[in-house]
Amino acid sequence: MTNLKQSILAGIFSIITISALTFLTYRTGLGVFLLASFGSSMVLLYGYPESPFAQPKNVFFGHLITSSVGIFFLQFVPLPIYIIIPIAVGFGVGLMILLKITHPPAGGNPIIIIIGSVSLDYLLSPVISGSVIIIIFAIIINRFILKKSYPIQK
Q: Which three-class secondary structure state does DSSP give residue 147?
């Protein structure tokens, strides 16, 4: 596949996936499904789906772990925001690498969570629900439309 074709398809499928999350968030009463870092996830899921960082377990658990870290620091570490943000990001990144679930876009989740002062409910919606949706879209699009082997079978 040419670079131009790959870039156009990645852009189109990113639009489709983020449109679904946006529709669910703003046109239904089902909750919030958008997380800013999902935009970065699109780069890996549609531009580089063969990357270990784009595999479903990395996407799901990377977002979940770093978001959990952000909520933990927000709720239980009584330090100024300019101190807890970098520490939370460092812990999140470190845990992803340690647990072998690295998904680089998820590294920004503690920042989003701490700045937004979100509650524990944020883990369910948008983190878990949104992650599941983008993974389903990535599997369908990569496997059945683009005919790529995704997720990579080890």
A: coil
